Amino acid sequence: MRLIDPATSLLVLVDYQQRLIPAIHGGAEVLAQAVRMAEVARELGIPVFGTEQHPKGLGPNVDEIRQRCEATLSKTHFDACAEGLLDLLPLDGTKAPREIVIAGCEAHVCLLQTALGLLQADLKVSVIAQACGSRTPENHELAMQRLRRAGADIVSVEMVAFEWLRSSTNRRFKRVLALLK
């Protein structure tokens, strides 16, 4: 096991949609953690991408997420990889991202299936548990268990932020620390 490398990682935020978030257990906190992670990524120059599941039915992603994403993929498949996520992400080239940090809703459906798709594409996947949500805590917990067994690392916002920073001598340390408080 190794640290998440900021030079080879990116952030994917799955389906933080207007009509879905109110139904998510602890939805406001899940959303706040996702926004915090997106802010840290942007501060460190790490690309952020989003997905939206059937936006005509569930609405677009909430503005707090949408405005922080470089691009957003609309989809009908639960697994965003089946709908072109891998084509959207900058995965070619020598310094290409090979580590995907991911969070989203619902943890046991779209987040789970997308993370499994990324793992199947031989990418390292780190799932931010506290920024993932489901309508019930049980479904969230089952999703995290299954993802861990599948080979994903289950992490927190702070774990990712401090691994991306590497050191308190990082010139963005104080700015990132302020985002985490």
Short description, anyone?
A 6-stranded parallel beta sheet has the order 3-2-1-4-5-6, with helices on both faces.
Individual helix count: 8
Helicity level: 40-55%
**Looking at CATH, which topology would you report?**
Rossmann fold
Q: How are the strands of the biggest sheet laid out side by side?
A: 3-2-1-4-5-6
H and E order? EHEHHEHEHEHEHH
Shape: globular
Cα-to-Cα separation, first versus last residue? 27 Å
Task: Specify the oligomeric state.
Answer: single chain
How would you describe what is shown here?
The protein is an alpha/beta fold. The protein has a single domain (6-180), classed as Rossmann fold (3-Layer(aba) Sandwich). 41% of the residues lie in helices and 17% in strands. The protein has 8 helices and 6 strands; from the N terminus they run βαβααβαβαβαβαα. α6 (137-150) links the parallel β5 and β6. α1 (27-43) runs antiparallel to α8 (173-180) and α5 runs parallel beside α6. It is globular, with a radius of gyration of 15 Å. It starts with 8 loop residues before the first strand and ends with a helix. The mean pLDDT is 94.
